[in-house]
Amino acid sequence: MSIPDIAIINATILPMGGAEKIENGSLTISGDSITAVGPAASVSTAGAKKLIDANDRVVMPGFVNCHTHIASNMLLRGLLEDVQLFEWLQTMWQLKRNFDEETLYWASLMGLVEMAKSGITTFNEHFDAYRVEPQIAALCKMPLRATLGYGLADRGLYAPITDWSWKALHRFGDKVSLHHRTRNDRVHVALSPHAPYSCGPEMFKLVRQVADAHKVVIHTHLSEGMQEIIYVKETYGTTPVQWVQSLGFLGPDVTAAHATQLNDDDIRILAETGTRIAHCPCCNAKLNSGTLRLRSVREAGIPVGLATDGPASHNALDMFQEMKFAGMIHKDKTGDVEFMKTSELLELATTGAAAAMNRPETGRLAVGRKADVIIVDLDKPHCMPVYDVAAALVYSARADDVVTTICDGQILMEDRVLPGIDETEIRHRFRERALALRCRSLN
User: Fold this and answer.
1) Domain 6-61+364-414 carries which CATH code?
2) Is 0.85 topped by the overall pTM?
3) Mind listing the pLDDT tens digit for each residue in 8-43?
4) How far, in Å, CA of 308 to CA of 331, rounded?
C-alpha cells in the first residue's frame, strides 16, 4: 500500500452521498484523490507525509456552490440594497460597463479567498462580467475547482455585449482548446446564455449546437422572477421553461439557476429533460424573486443543489447561511417542520450541488473521489453543546468555523491561514479598485 500524502485522524467524518457518519474516523489522500476513508481501525495512515489531527472536529466534503458570479459581484456587494431584481440589474450594469481586467483579477482573487476560507472548494461561475481570463489567472493563485461559464446576451439591458457574445459563440472552440479540463481537470468551461429576457431564440439555439459540438455544459438563469414570466408570456406566449424547451435547449447538461416561478408543466419538462436546478434561497428572498417549489422539484426527481448566487445579491459566499435559510424558508412555505431535515440540507450543499453542476467527481468523501475536503471546528460557543453534528453544521456553524480547506489534494488553508497568499495585499488592491470603479461609474 502506498504512503499517503495527507492523513486526517481522530475525526468525525460525514462522507455524504448517503453514507453514514463515521465516529473516530480517518481519511487518507494521495495526489489529488481520496485513497481511504473509514473507522480508524480500518485505515492505515502509516508514514503519511502530512498528518492532521481532527480531534473534536468534523471532516466533510468541500461545499459546492453551483451558481454564482464572483468576478463581477465582488465589486458590487452592498452597493444597492432594498430594491427588486430588475431595478438592481439596471444599476449594476452601470458599473459592469466600466470593468477592466486588472480590477476583475483582484475581485476574482478576493472572491476565491472568501470561498476557500468558507469551505467552498467547487463553484459554478456565470460570467456576467464577460471577461473570463482574469478569473482564470486568479485560479493559478488560488486553485479551486471551477466551471467557468462564458456569459452571453443579445438584447435588452445587455444589448451592448451582443457583438462580443456572437463572436464568442462562433469561436468557442478556441476557448475549449485553451481552458477546458485544464489544471489537472479542475477548470472546465461552459456556455452561459444570460436569461430568456436577455437572449433571443437564435442565441439559445446556437448555444445548444455549440454545447453539443464541444461537449461542454450550459449554465443559465431561468424562471427567476415575475418580470421574466411576464416578458416571456407577452413576447412568446408561454413560460420561460416551455419556451426554451421549444427551442430544443434543455437537457441534463443544463444548470438552471433560481427556477422560482415554475408551474406543474414546467416541473414535468425539467424532469423529463434531466435539467438541473441551482437553488439560491437567500438571494431569491432578498430580491423578492419567489421561492423554488423544492418539494415538488424533488418529488419529480430533478437534480437540485444549493448555491449562493453572487455576493452582490446575497452579500456572502457562505453555504452555512444558505443551508440554514433553505431549511427555515421551506419549513415555513410548506407548513411542514419535518421537510428538509439537516442531513438533506447538507446533501444539497455537497453531493446535490455537485450533481446540479455536473461535477460528479466531487461532493462526497469516497475512495477514488477528488480530495476536496474541509475540516470544521464546532468547539465554539455558538455551536455548543453539539448533541447532533448535522444540526450544528446547518443551524449553528458559520463560515469562519472552517479551519482547513483541501482542494484536489492541495492544502489551501490550514488553521485559518492561506499559505502563500498575502491577504492584506489582496484586500488593499481589491478595495482600491472597487472604490475607483464606483467613483467613475456613478458620479
Assistant:
1) 2.30.40.10
2) yes
3) 999 999 999 999 999 999 999 999 999 999 999 999
4) 19
